[in-house]
Amino acid sequence: MTTESIPAEPAVAPHDPGPDDHSYAYDLVVVGSGPGGQKAAIAAAKLGKRVCVVERKHMVGGVCVNTGTIPSKTLREAVLYLTGMHQRDVYGASYRVKADITVQDLLARTQHVIGREVEVVRAQLLRNHVDLVVGSGRFVDPHTIAVSGDGGNPDTTVTAAHVVIATGTRPARPDSVEFGPRVVDSDGVIDLERVPGSMVVAGAGVIGIEYASMFAALGTRVTVVDKRPSLLEFCDPEVVDSLKFHLRDLAVSFRLGEEVRSVEANGAGTVTTLASGKRIPAETVMYSAGRQGQTDSLDLEKAGLNADSRGRIAVGTNYRTEVPHIYAVGDVIGFPALAATSMDQGRIAAYDAFGEPVRDLTALQPIGIYTIPEISYCGRGEAELTADAVPYEVGVARYRELARGQIVGDPYGMLKLLVHTETRELLGVHVFGTAATDLVHIGQAIMGCGGTVDYLVDTVLNYPTLSEAYKVAALDATNKLRAVARFGA
């Protein structure tokens, strides 16, 4: 997760603040109120520290709440409900809750949830006595942040013994692409005036493939283009193959190993030209070219810091930058750039700043991808175990074998367990299908406690539930281990 190794202390520190340095107005100032910044601020406040958060007026909750995670995941739930996707296996492929789904139908739920989440963030900061300074922050020196007020709020300056940078990212926009009403990025896709009949998704990363699956579920003819030869290369190949099969069933086309040369748009639609010469017509293009760290306006050089070409800040142990009292957390430091991991990074940074013991379980952080269906995994994968010559066995459960899978109408889902053949430890869990991002935590907890597959064999799980997949997969793995022992005797 860290991008480079950085010494814990510089050779000469002009002022090394102690845990209760009262020469500054605050013990901690956090720039950004997304998941990482919010949790850093609250963690420090729980330790009895004086804390303030600097955030723009219309971005309380950060990118996560306003333009990223919360809008996209709420949109996904609205799509699943209104299209009746989960019921089609039972009631037929033509089943829909609403015949003509409009953007307004989708956004009604999205705007409601965003509003509620913003209020939750404000209330949590208020309840923990964290000051909210409204405006855009930039460094004056390593301990001073100048805040340019917006929305009628005054300009001000705050000083702090410690600083956490949690400014997040924005969609990267290549100069070669002219964005407009028909060519949008991941922020603009939720502002489309209507559900398009056809769409090109340029970029098959996590964000691109999530939106591709949502619009495919709405009935949009989606073409996914990516210069990489395969999707989601960090995921289990069998799970990715299952996702591709499902998306092809929704009429999604894939142009992998292809690079976008140009995108032309007019009032009628768009034409995307690939480097191979192929031309793809579509009503709309969603260009998903990765994310850019929002650090260009921070004046990092005045704090003794710098960012790479993608606006990311390098960190070392416990998310310290090369300036020991300044930390960076969340998407602005790069991979894995997930809300869940950002929250923990913020907590760890605050604890480290004030001498509180921390335990970082980075190796067991789950990855969740909110495609339709979901993908989630935790622990190690088959390719990694094979490369490290770790002996393992695979146990698989298919949702179609579970009563609950039939009830919820998910015939595609699967859960895979990777088990050490000698110690019987659970090494990894990979889930595809309904509630995958929830189910993964059972395996995560067992791995975190050093548990074995025998626990899952011996324990009793509620019936009928999707959690029962763990029992089925565990029995599958142990039966294979038993067969090896019998035939190898």
From TrEMBL:
| Family indicated by similarity | Belongs to the class-I pyridine nucleotide-disulfide oxidoreductase family.
Keywords for this protein: Cytoplasm, FAD, Flavoprotein, NAD, NADP, Oxidoreductase
GO MF, any single term: NAD(P)+ transhydrogenase (Si-specific) activity
Q: Where is the Pyridine nucleotide-disulphide oxidoreductase dimerisation domain?
A: 366-473
Q: Under what name is this protein listed?
A: NAD(P)(+) transhydrogenase (Si-specific)
EC no. given is 1.6.1.1
Primary gene name? sthA
Q: Where is the FAD/NAD(P)-binding domain?
A: 26-346
